[in-house]
Design goal:
The structure holds 2 protein chains of 2 kinds.
Chain A (H helix, E strand, L loop, with lengths): L3 E5 L11 E7 L2 E8 L7 H4 L5 H9 L6 H15 L6 H29 L3 H22 L8 E2 L2 E2 L5 H27 L1 H7 L7 H6 L4 H5 L30 H24 L18 E9 L2 E9 L7 E5 L1 H13 L7 H7 L4 H4 L13 E3 L3 E3 L4
Antiparallel strand pairs in A: 1-2, 2-3, 4-5, 6-7, 7-8, 9-10
Helix pairs in contact in A: 2-3, 3-4, 4-5, 4-10, 4-12, 5-6, 6-10
Chain B lengths: L5 E3 L2 E6 L4 H10 L3 E9 L3 E9 L2 E9 L5 E3 L9 H11 L2 E3 L25
The chains are: A alpha+beta, B alpha/beta.
Chain lengths: 384, 123
């Protein structure tokens, strides 16, 4: 029986996004956890039903700041398959480069936050300084630092010129040296090792049953990676997912560190092997052919799925969004129970939760109109 | 791929009923299919689509739900990963999920509980 209940969140210095964990403690040990979500709930799935295909693209990109291009990419995979479009190879390469850039900046951000959780503030600052280099690369290619807004139906909106490619290559070289140094610190520091080894273990069988994805799954021995299917330019890279068997916070950190180096290598290969040609199909698609289709892309946190339903009209009929943090939340309870309170923040951070992604679901808001819904009751929906 | 599944644009679809769904899911479990997610969709009929990855291909199992009595059985016994998605389905579409291990609202704030916001409204 628990001694006390400690509320963690929704606003807590140990968490970088709002979520509420009700921790049932016996002494220092966590006996049970109740997870409450919905604090970043903005209504994206309902919102895109009222937009046209291009506005929906921009809405979907803004579900999350750190995984923005993955959402637009998964959405476009589904839409372009429905419309049976042949996206030009050059556009596919540019999209792949940006997916890898996003992985770089997300993992560096995560590394900073994870160090902050265990009190290693210096490492936090150094990781985020390295991340600034990556954001410079993004700004060079896409014009923006956070939301790239570079995808369009049938390709991309901006090209990578030779000058830009050279600048990116130079940045990547210096970034590689910095990443190696940071990885060296993380892997050999005895303090980090003590805080992360053996903490928050997720056994392989549980990771599989509970539907873990991304580095959370790969840290527990599963070789799950959407990039293995070879979509877009990944088929030309000979990609193999990084995997560890430990299942603890340390393994998940090792996976992300290796992926940083892997991503830099992939970007260099992509820049060198970029084909010529068009960057998009040069026309707008007002209506999309009817059907159901699933688009899947590997975000820094795992696989992102967009299941798009079109009825042949100018608006998406339905866009079901399943984000990786949403999938990994199932595993948190298993990881937290039996651990100590002091490790709770570290464990939660190790799955790299992105609440903006998890809560994206929906809101009932008809602007200026009151509405009567009858499903076993009469309820007036809110309006502003 | 499963018997009776049809292919559209490289992805596979199978229509199922509430009654034969457990058999189909057990077959998928034996074949090591990976459960991805489930979605509620309202076209002419109210549907629940279960998404799987089987042998590198996507398989979508679509179950039609009765508009007047929207009910479905939980698949958590076969695929425990479905727990959070079924909670979301129940609060967003008003579909009752029977035998769910932990049926609580997930995302909606208190004032919107019971309103099934994702159902289409008649304009």
């Amino acid at each position: 029986m628990h001694d006390m209940i400690v509320p963690m969140g929704p606003y807590h210095p140990g968490l970088h996004e709002p979520e509420y964990f009700k921790l049932y403690l016996k002494g220092e040990e966590i006996e049970n956890v109740e997870i409450y979500l919905g604090y970043n709930h903005r209504g994206v799935e309902k919102l895109v039903e009222g937009k046209n295909w291009y506005s929906a693209l921009f809405n979907v990109e803004r579900i999350c700041g750190i995984c923005s291009i993955v959402h637009s990419s998964a959405y476009l995979q589904a839409v372009e398959t429905l419309q049976e479009l042949d996206v030009p190879m050059r556009a596919q390469f540019i999209r792949t480069i940006l997916l890898e850039v996003e992985r770089l900046q997300s993992h560096l951000l995560w590394l900073g936050i994870a160090s902050h959780q265990i009190g290693f503030e210096t490492l936090f600052m150094h990781c985020w300084t390295a991340r600034e280099k990556v954001l410079d690369v993004v700004e060079e290619i896409a014009g923006n630092r956070i939301h790239y807004s570079i995808n369009t139906i049938g390709g991309v909106r901006r090209d990578i010129t030779k000058n830009q490619a050279d600048k990116v290559r130079t940045t990547l070289k210096s970034l590689k040296a910095e990443v190696d140094e940071l990885a060296g610190v993380c892997l050999h520091d005895p303090f980090i090792s003590q805080r992360l080894r053996g903490v928050g273990v997720l056994p392989e069988k549980d990771a599989q049953e509970l539907g873990a994805v991304g580095p959370t799954a790969r840290g527990s021995g599963l070789t799950l990676d959407a990039r293995s299917s070879g979509f877009w330019a990944y088929s030309s890279l000979g990609f193999k997912p990084v995997c560890r068997k430990g299942g603890d916070c340390w393994s998940r950190m090792e996976v992300r560190l290796d992926e940083l180096t892997q991503s830099i290598g992939m970007m260099e290969m992509l820049l060198d092997g970029m084909p010529g040609g068009q960057i998009n199909l040069g026309r707008k698609f007002i209506k999309i052919l009817p059907g159901h289709c699933l688009g899947r892309v590997e975000a820094p946190r795992g696989e992102v799925i967009h299941y798009v339903v079109s009825n042949g009209d100018v608006n998406p009929w339905r866009d079901r969004i399943r984000t990786p943090s949403y999938a990994n939340f199932n595993c948190l309870k298993k990881m937290l129970i039996g651990e100590e309170l002091a490790d709770a923040a570290s464990i939660i951070t190790s799955i790299d939760p992105c609440m903006s992604c998890t809560d994206r679901a929906l809101v009932v808001d008809e602007k200026g109109k009151k509405e009567i819904v009858d499903l076993g009751g009469v309820v007036h929906a809110h309006h502003h | 791929m499963l018997e009776g599944a049809r292919e559209e644009k490289g992805q596979w679809f199978l229509d199922a009923t509430r009654e034969n769904l457990p058999t189909i899911l057990t077959q998928l479990k034996v074949k090591n299919a990976r459960f991805l997610t489930l979605s509620g969709i309202e076209e002419d009929q109210l549907q629940v689509a279960y998404h799987f990855e089987l042998g590198g291909k996507f398989l979508h199992i679509i179950v039609v739900v009765d508009h007047n009595k929207p009910e479905i059985n939980s698949i958590c016994k076969i695929f425990p990963a479905a727990e959070l998605y079924e909670r979301e389905l129940s609060e967003m579409f008003g579909i009752k999920v029977k035998n769910h291990p932990n049926m609580l609202p997930l995302f909606l704030p208190d004032e919107l509980k019971g309103t099934a916001p994702m159902r289409k409204r008649k304009q």
